Amino acid sequence: MEVAASAGALSPAKNNLWIIVFIFCFLGLLIDGADLMLLSYSLSSLKAEFGLTSVEAGSLGSFTLAGMAIGGIYGGWACDRFGRVKTVVWSIVLFSAGTAVLGMTHSYWQFAGTRFFASLGLGALYVACNTLMAEYVPTRYRTTVLGTLQAGWSVGYIVATLLAGWILPNHGWRWLFYVAIIPVILAVLMQRLVPEPQAWVKAQAERARAKAEGIKRVSAKKPDGMFKLIFSDPKASRMFILWALTAGFLQFGYYGVNNWMPSYLEGELGMNFKSMTSYMVGTYAAMIFGKILAGLAADRLGRRLVFAVGALGTAIFLPVIVLFQSPDNILWMLIVFGFLYGIPYGVNATYMTESFEAKFRGSAVGGAYNIGRIGAAVAPAAIGFLASHGSIGVGFLVMGGAYFICGVIPALFIRDKQFDPQKQ
Asked: Could you confirm whether domain 13-198+220-413 is CATH 3.30.70.360?
């Protein structure tokens, strides 16, 4: 049996296998982040070729995030049902192939439908990578490692920025999506080299033993069974609701700003494409530093404190950018902003995974985070609406309010280190 075979692997806490796992997961999130940003950089080209309004262009981001939400929920369940590694592998295959097909589309609805399908894999990958990594890395520096892992997303943003600067002017937006087929190679290698973590193997063995002994349990063969298991536990259900609310406001702010920042710099601040991409590289480089530093700080000062500081700092600084930016100060403002809005994501993965037990961790984290993507799905279209009736800057002020709420909820209600993913 596969579970028995996996159980024979060496304990991840006693060897350096977690480093190999980290490399694969880092590359996975790098690709995830790059894929997400390819749409942002191609929006202007898509508007021109397909004749899109600002609301239609923004809705492409909403289709993306809606697909990520559904993919994340099912991806979390698949992590618990079939394994963390298998879910990572098939998620990469799904979004890589789907994104490449985007280059062959010729209308708004073709693009939107294909993007939604590919985004199922994007959402599943984020949950699967974070759950897998949390169960491999030793507890004493878990947040440092997972914070650095989140930097993979930001490195992906830089990769996408550099690719856009090279490919878009010379080859057009279609080739920007064709290159997304390359990560399938990563999926093949990971399937061969990385075993399932011991926490998942142990949880599967306990389920098999309970079944053999005739102990009646809630069925986890379908997502609804796993969620019934979560909501049968009062503590888990409370954490699920709190994290779903926190994730909703976090992603409403994060994805709204992320999807429209290039257009804001290019359209409302009058930057040319080359200058805009250079400024965005600076922002994402600062975000990488923010995520890594957040992980280090959270292992020493606590997950709750660092998360709240990052979210509330971002809430304060977004209005500062909109109201006080100028050609002389916009670069340093974007660098400070990149640092601040990277902090919550540097802590988010560890903070969430330590809030739930292993038996339903993937489903709980995937469910709460991806129900929160309702906020993410609404945000790009909401800013598009505000842009068509005013400015993108007004939308950014609304995003600042969302960041404020997402900092307050965990600060008041979600304590640190409720479960150790290496043991529970």
From this structure: no
Which pLDDT tens digit goes with each residue over 281-293?
888 889 889 989 9
Closest by CA to 382, choosing from 251, 187, 233, is 251
pTM of the full predicted structure? 0.74
The dihedrals phi and psi of 50, each to the nearest 5 degrees, come to -95, -5
What are 305's two structure tokens? Answer: 């404190």
How far apart are the C-alpha atoms of 176 and 195, rounded to whole Å?
Answer: 33
Query: Does residue 14 carry a pLDDT above 70?
Result: no
Count CA atoms within 13 Å of residue 270 on its CB side: 3
Q: Residue 23 has which token pair?
A: 């490399």
pLDDT in tens, 339-393: 998 899 889 888 998 999 877 888 888 889 888 878 877 887 788 788 777 788 8
DSSP 183: T
Q: Which of 292, 403, 296, 285 is nearest to 335 (CA)?
A: 285
Q: Count Cβ atoms below 10 Å from residue 219 Cβ, excluding itself.
A: 11
Cα gap 172→87, rounded to integer Å: 33
What is the token pair recorded at 175? 């080739």
Q: In whole angstroms, give the CA distance from residue 305 to residue 302.
A: 6
Which token pair is 219? 């069925």
4: tokens are 């028995």
Q: Which one has a higher pLDDT value, 210 or 76? A: 76
Dihedral sign, Cα of residue 284, residue 38, residue 35, residue 165: negative
Q: How far apart are CA 398 and CA 379, in angstroms?
A: 10
Helix (H) and strand (E) counts in the chain: 17, 0
* Residue burial 156-191, b: 16+ Cβ < 10 Å; e: rest: bbbbbbebbbebbeeeebeebbbbbeebeebbeebe
pLDDT above 60 (res 213): yes
- 106-123: average pLDDT: 93
Mean pLDDT of the chain, nearest integer: 85
Burial of 3 (0-12, 13-18, 19+ CB in 10 A): middle
Over residues 155-188, the pLDDT tens digits come to: 888 888 888 888 988 888 999 999 889 888 888 8
CB 379 within 8 A of CB 255: yes
Average pLDDT of span 98-123: 93
Calculate Rg over the CA atoms of the chain: 21
